Amino acid sequence: MTQRGRPRSFDRAAALRRAMEVFWAQGYDGTSMSNLIAAMNVNSPSIYAAFGSKEALFREAVALYRETEGGRILSAMTTAPSTRAAIETMLRVSAEEYTRPGKPRGCLIVLGALHADDGNEVMRRELQVHRAESLTMLLQRLKRGVAEGELPNGPDWRAIATFYITVQQGMSIQARDGATRKALLAVADCAIAAWDGLVSYRRDGRAL
Amino acid sequence: MTQRGRPRSFDRAAALRRAMEVFWAQGYDGTSMSNLIAAMNVNSPSIYAAFGSKEALFREAVALYRETEGGRILSAMTTAPSTRAAIETMLRVSAEEYTRPGKPRGCLIVLGALHADDGNEVMRRELQVHRAESLTMLLQRLKRGVAEGELPNGPDWRAIATFYITVQQGMSIQARDGATRKALLAVADCAIAAWDGLVSYRRDGRAL
DNA sequence: TCATTTATGTGTCAAGCGATACAGAATATA
DNA sequence: TATATTCTGTATCGCTTGACACATAAATGA
Q: Which CATH class is domain A12-61?
């Protein structure tokens, strides 16, 4: 029993990529079905048949973003030789991803649904969960460094992880405002400049 | 020749404050006239008579925000005894402002209109200008430190100013995601931990 | 007292929103 | 070839959006 009925006349994966870019550039609320119809070059009944709803389409777009763009940040982080290099790589690859020519600037997951207006509380919370996962993964990387003896046990690693995630998220806004790749890399360098001081925190929580 | 005609039956300043809080919480696009009518407790013809349009109302709301909430950050920065204290104060006051109980979290100017959907390009650009001004003011404070001999002439002060603004903007997103005031203050501490290293940058741009 | 001026509440406008009903077209199975 | 199945384009649904027309209410000035 193979495929029944009239075959789909458009490339579902390609259409999803287009949708992802529109959501990425304009956010969930800022993207209308008209925008999607134009970008995907697919009429709305076919979009609904293939993806279910605007909400479901956004969910798939976010999943695709995490696999592709977001995945490059993560994999770069996990293959780094040291904890410090992992953080540095995360920030530097983020700077590059957020300023790719021909692509929307900044991060879809950070900028996609920040406000809780009337109907989009669900999507906002889902992106919030994804953002929280980024923190968790960075924190796990730090704790691995501690477990392996690379890093001391004293510092507030959660605070440090939060700091670097905050810098990364701020870079999304900077990218949206037109910051160059070079400028974002300089921001990453500045953040890394804090590392040595942060790692050598004393018991009382103050820098040496 | 005093006031002619029927007097206004609502407090314009109070209604503007209410509007500001709605825009602050939901953004420009995310806020509908229905939301404003409900929050301000004023019917739409009266809103249009008093403020002109949704766009003009948002403009006034942003101006009010800058005078009040934003003003507290700036004045704290200008009265600081040293450049380092100015930056530290800016970040710490930001952490406090972004987590005031009973108020929307994060910064109206940072979060108010990030996307360029169909009709709001004008407001996005205006907020962008305001954000650029924040960078300019911080940079001027740094250059003052250099001029007064407090700081050396070598470091890329624009990059350093951009770094601290990036942290501040990232804090808006963190605040939106529910970060506690304590957590944001810890982020500020981490950012400040970078200061000494940044100030002592060598000619070649690498840390000592 | 009465014209003038300004603000108010009711009701509504055209346009756009997300989502579908429907009939026809294109495939697989029987 | 006949039938069942699935996708396509047209056209439109009910609803919300930002904005405003209109008649009325409440003030001042002559």
A: mainly alpha
